[in-house]
């Protein structure tokens, strides 16, 4: 019995396509998004194998410019890196300079600063409470978020003249006293916003599609939070219970411990980060009310100190950090006794937070990448500075 000879033929498809990784660039996008961020992803099929955030497209060299501006002018530069948290950005600079000078700020200014910092926190959070669902395909919440923002923008604009860059802090206090009847209008705005905040519970947290896209997605471990220096709502959503307003109080936060609630979650996923942000917004409104109550009890008085025509910080160095809406914001000020800083180093929240993406994205699906990226709540100017 003879065997029939057989012939084997190998058919190749596209040059070993299955073993080739695909490199995908996400961004850089238009400046009117959260900023110009580029993500360089290496894909293995539908999964992300490697992720590298590429930053620097919006770098303006603010830290170098600080060295050529006097202590009044640097407030304007510091104002702009996280354009959603302008008041809080100014605050860190003036606190650092006041600490160098050993300057006491009038009590009315301390309480007013605390009030405006919390209103600024609500404005920041509302933007993300509206834009995050938008990134996942839900358009309605952003309309509500902007309406609530507008209520608070009116009172912020009335007191400072600015809608985004308030320029209301000064070394020694605030630019000027309140307009007549402002506290009443601020209280009304806070009450109006609070009365409609449940929209986000109903529209977003109650939405099964939103929960399906975010629950269990993009888990950030407490170890990664500590390793990368992640802070703010993102760090607290992973169970890292740290908030400078409670742990190292500044301004009037030491007297607000009964009202202040540090919101934490244990899950560390996209949903936990959104829940932290939402609950923190509720608490910021309560803190604003508590500040308004205290201001009503204070007698009329100055809101700033008289300064010399040329302000010089004494020789030395100091570090002032604040709990900004997106996390820890720190200024390391070195002075040689001149009217300009010798060095002013900025530690911004988003810079550290976004680094965690290198650990967070690998292993996840491309479809979940936007959900994870949006839940990191960053402003690119705050990364690039």
**The CATH homologous superfamily of the largest domain:** Cytochrome-c3 Hydrogenase, chain B
Q: What's the end-to-end separation, in Å?
A: 83 Å
- What gross morphology would you assign? globular
Second CATH tier, the architecture of the largest domain? Orthogonal Bundle
Q: Could you tell me the CATH topology label of the largest domain.
A: Cytochrome-c3 Hydrogenase, chain B
Please bin the fraction of helical residues. Answer: 40-55%
CA-based gyration radius? 24 Å
Explain this structure to me?
The chain is an alpha+beta fold. The protein folds into 2 domains: 22-54, no CATH class; 62-383, Cytochrome-c3 Hydrogenase, chain B, CATH 1.10.645. The chain has 16 helices and 8 strands. The protein has a 3-stranded antiparallel beta sheet. A 3-stranded antiparallel beta sheet has the order 6-7-8. Strands 4-5 form a two-stranded antiparallel ribbon. Strand 4 (169-170) and strand 5 form a beta hairpin. It is globular. Residues 9-16 have low confidence and may be disordered.
